[in-house]
Amino acid sequence: MINKIVRSMADAMAGIKDGSTVLLAGFGSVGQPNQLIEGLIEQGARELTVAANNAGSGHVGLARLMELGRVRKIICSFPRSSDPVVFETLYRSGQIELEIVPQGTIAERMRAAGAGIPQFFTATGVGTKMAVGKEHREIDGRTYILENALKGDVGLVEAWEADRWGNLTYKLAGRNFNPVVAMASELSIVQTQHVRELGELDPDHIVTPGIFVDRVLHVPYGDPGSF
Amino acid sequence: MSEAATMFKPYSRPQMAKLAADDIPEGWYVNLGIGIPTAIADHVPLDREVIFHSENGVLGMGPAPEKDKIEPWLINAGKQYVTLRAGGSICHHADSFSMIRGGHLDLCVLGAFQVADNGDIANWATSENDTAPAVGGAMDLAAGAKRLWVLMDHTTKDGTPKLVNKCSYPLTAQRCVKRVYTNLAVIDVADIGFVVRQMSPGLSFEDLQARTEAKLHLPG
């Protein structure tokens, strides 16, 4: 019997290695797997590369992981947030590497990784400093730059519902990066608000099929807090 | 130039938003950038069906919710609570940016630091060495939407023109701005450069040119 549902946070986080690339879903505090980030803090892996839309806020979650010196590099589109104190301190003192990537390019790099597409051309960033050092090609009269897929060793995902095969649904804007993080990651770890019996989720409403998911932890925390 | 020398009344922020809103026809799919452009939605009547998109996978946004009807799972790209209209839909980030990058949006309206008369836009960083530059979805929107309009003040607070010959700040995208709504004028970006469509009441073409670095043209 396939059962991707794990009993504990320790089981969810087992085997994450130092030096891993971790893809982190979420946009604002909606659809962000906060408890899994806490679990990663506990788990102890170091020298991480983290790809996320933002670079953390305050002193909790991703910001805490960075503050503990566990993140070597961050890949994100918008390092500023309501309270980016930890990131800015580390960045100014040269203790963390930053790769700034347009938001759509991050999302597409993840999808490409999940779809077996190693590189792709995009018009986003042409003529800007994002294009420096990248291969340019003119296709049908328009100039594009070449971008690499962004594959995760580990992906952290928040779902609304999940079953034991790892089929997932999401709630409203909580979907955001979650489906592409799941498909782009070697080890996709999901926290879910609700666990459903196999067969209970309407096949037409499953957004992420379980083939993209490895582990599911039930974390019924309620609604997202304020930002 | 002394303000006393001329008598004119700049457009207010709501007037700027209304000018842009009046130019958006029914049926367009539109992304409004964070900041001043967001206010444009307030000036599009609900019976004119314009479909507003937000980068985080929300298509068909409605007005802001009443305080007691907030849905904590429904925010826009500015992290504000929003509503969905009947017919609204949710998608993931890569699909949402496919709408942008795949040329499906009819219009995007952004704020900007500078716009050049060839349509270049600079709106994400104010120096080459910005400590932690934050681009978000601006480059995707500027390069991807079918047309890009800019809503911004005509000059900086100290009077430095923002409509320039060449952007001095790092570019967001090249040759993509089609129209600029400022507190002084509505200006098209055409093959010959900036073409003035409309000016705020009492403002002369010469006054406007004096506040603009790049050469202005009259239509026709």
Topology:
The complex is a heterodimer of chains A (227) and B (220).
Chain A: H1 9-13, E1 21-24, H2 34-43, E2 48-51, H3 62-67, E3 71-76, H4 85-92, E4 97-100, H5 103-115, E5 119-122, E6 136-139, E7 142-148, E8 152-162, E9 168-169, H6 178-184, E10 185-195, E11 215-218
Parallel strand pairs in A: 1-2, 1-8, 2-3, 3-4, 8-10, 10-11
Antiparallel strand pairs in A: 5-7, 6-7, 8-9
Helix pairs in contact in A: 5-6
Chain B: H1 13-22, E1 29-32, E2 51-54, E3 58-62, E4 83-90, H2 93-101, E5 107-110, E6 114-116, E7 121-122, H3 138-144, E8 148-151, E9 163-164, E10 177-181, E11 185-190, E12 193-199, H4 205-210, E13 216-217
Helix pairs in contact in B: 2-3
Give a quick rundown of the structure.
Chain A has helices at 9-13, 34-43, 62-67, 85-92, 103-115, 178-184, and strands at residues 21-24, 48-51, 71-76, 97-100, 119-122, 136-139, 142-148, 152-162, 168-169, 185-195, 215-218.
Descriptive overview:
The complex is a heterodimer of chains A (227) and B (220). Chain A is of the alpha/beta class. Chain A has one domain: Glutaconate Coenzyme A-transferase, CATH 3.40.1080.10. Helix content of chain A is 22%, strand content 27%. Chain A has 6 helices and 11 strands. In chain A, the strands form 2 sheets. In chain A, strands 1, 2, 3, 4, 8, 9, 10 and 11 form an 8-stranded mixed sheet that branches. In chain A, strand 6 and strand 7 form a beta hairpin. In chain A, helix 5 packs across helix 6. In chain B, the strands form 2 sheets. Chain B has a 10-stranded mixed sheet with strand order 4-3-2-1-5-8-10-11-12-13. In chain B, strands 7-6-9 form a 3-stranded mixed sheet, with no helix packed on it. In chain B, strand 11 and strand 12 (193-199) form a beta hairpin. Chain B has 4 helices and 13 strands. Helix content of chain B is 15%, strand content 25%. Chain B has one domain (3-124, 133-217): Glutaconate Coenzyme A-transferase, CATH 3.40.1080.10. Chain B is globular, with a radius of gyration of 18 Å. By secondary structure, chain B is α/β, with parallel strands linked by helices. Chain B starts with 12 loop residues before the first helix and ends with a strand. At the A-B interface, helix 4, helix 5 and helix 6 of A face helix 2 and helix 3 of B.
